[in-house]
Amino acid sequence: MTTTDAIAPVRPEDARRIAADGWVWGFALVENYRTMYPQAIDADDHRYVGGFGTFRHYPQPFTPANTDVVTPNNDTPYSWAWLDLRTEPWVLSVPATDRYHVLPLHDLDTPYVGFIGSRTTGDSAGDYLVTGPGRTGPVPDGLAGVLRADTQLVGILGRAYLAGPQDVDALKAVQQQYLLRPLSEFTDAERPEPAVEPQWPVWREEARESVEFFTYLDFLLQFVPVREDVRRLRADLARLGIDGTGSFEPGALSPELREALAQGMDDGRARLREAEAAHPSSAGLFGTRAELGDDFLLRAVGVDKGLYGLPTAEAWYGGWLTDTAGNRPPNAAARDYTVHFTADQLPKARFFWSATLYRLPERLLVDNPIDRYSIGDRTPGLVYDADGGLTLYVQHTRPADPDQAANWLPAPAGPFTVITRIYGPASAVLDGTWQLPDLTAAPDRG
């Protein structure tokens, strides 16, 4: 069936509605492919991890010179991998370590399949089976767990604690013990016939803003079995020729239908912007499929705000976009800032917490004379108040007072934001009883 045949009965107003719903639901899939393509498919890209079934580790801390990732996390450097589960399951093996770590596995549409790490599985070594949708068969003895994915392609964005540049070699030693093996290799069995290699569409950044978006979505649907919660939407998309065959061609549409799809995308973006304005925190944006449910708009908010963000049970995210003078965003060219935690107000973390500063609008780290990009409970040399409280000094120039300089978080001479991360947040953080203190603005220097 050609694209033209598929969409012939669809009225433009129906196509616009379907496109809006399809864009909201498919946004996560296409954004995920936007990351997966350079990492797992395009061997000429500097971000290439080595293909499917291979880890690439990044043990070095981020600096202002790293511009590939916005709002980079300097607490827990990354370990990236991607799995193609069509041929057979894979086994992920991890070493014993008392270092905070988490290896989250996410489906192609971004809900988490499961978590291996300090919070969920502990510090012991273990072998974990990762299997695709509909897969049956015996499970080898001795496995520490089984993670069952709902899509044929799965991503892994591992994180492990880094104490600083002096800790890089020790972190490497842990990362290099992460191991991925096909099940047949793990059990020393004959490897099955490999699945047919797809014709991966080359990622084009401009496709995000055009109806070509649906060309990528059509291709990706072949890896996503139809689930009951999207059965009606998948049927509607198939009426437009977006059916997982990879044959959708926007050029085959009539001008009226192309315009209807473009308008539907605009409608979807408007819904996303409205939802983001109504949901300023990360609560409920990230989690397993059972936790996220069928609120695909909220899932899109999470993808847009922080693709691969961790659920709040693992890590809580918060920060300051406005100061006490009402400036949005804060601006260190005009004034200095303080953040004062009383002894009872210090972030309550099972593992650790940090506050990282980013310049705006780029959301990148800020070059500074002491090479400090974040500050937290593991920062050496912090000066606490006599009563156990802590004051941070967020400003462009180094404070003259030595105690204040010890607690200095350098800011650019311009707009910025600060993101606080709490790893293993306590129940008071999760239920909202605990709150961040204000970002207090000093008088304008002008």
UniProtKB/TrEMBL annotation:
Residue stretches making up the DUF1214 domain: 321-426
Domain DUF1254 stretches: 53-182
Domain of life: Bacteria
Positions of transmembrane segments: none
Entry protein name: DUF1254 domain-containing protein
